[in-house]
Fold this protein.
Amino acid sequence: MDVVQKEKNVTLWKQNSDVEKANEMMKNTIAEVLDIRIEAIAEDSLTASMPVDHRTHQPMGILHGGASVVLAETVGSMAAMMAAEPGKACVGLDINANHLRKVVSGRVTAVARPIHIGRTTHVWDIRICDEQQRDICISRLTMAVIDMQV
């Protein structure tokens, strides 16, 4: 059940909802360093992916939990910005992550879906899966909605 209530013909996305523009916004950020890419923008979700390689491994050669959190916060933050009213920006308040399964290689995919879109806060559910579509991390991200700084 989708807890975000939307009026008929009202889209979730209020600002840039273009994959190419979203990826352009991530230049010169940690997302670019880790090769995080926005893959798809659907009616009610935003999808991004990240490689599991030397950049995202921890010393035991598996996906670092912190890298999963970076992916979750990146896709959730981008989704929150796109869902915010024009003239507003979103900044992180809280994130949690449950790491469920190890991954040693390939690419993981994160899907952010809204739980709550309010005037001053957003809450996002982010599911990260491996290439076999198995959940590897489940995260919840809370964002503050603030006035855009000029």
About this structure: The longest strand covers residues 135-147. Helices lie at 19-25, 30-33, 65-83. Confidence is low (pLDDT under 50) at residues 5-9. Residues 65-83 form the longest helix (19 residues).
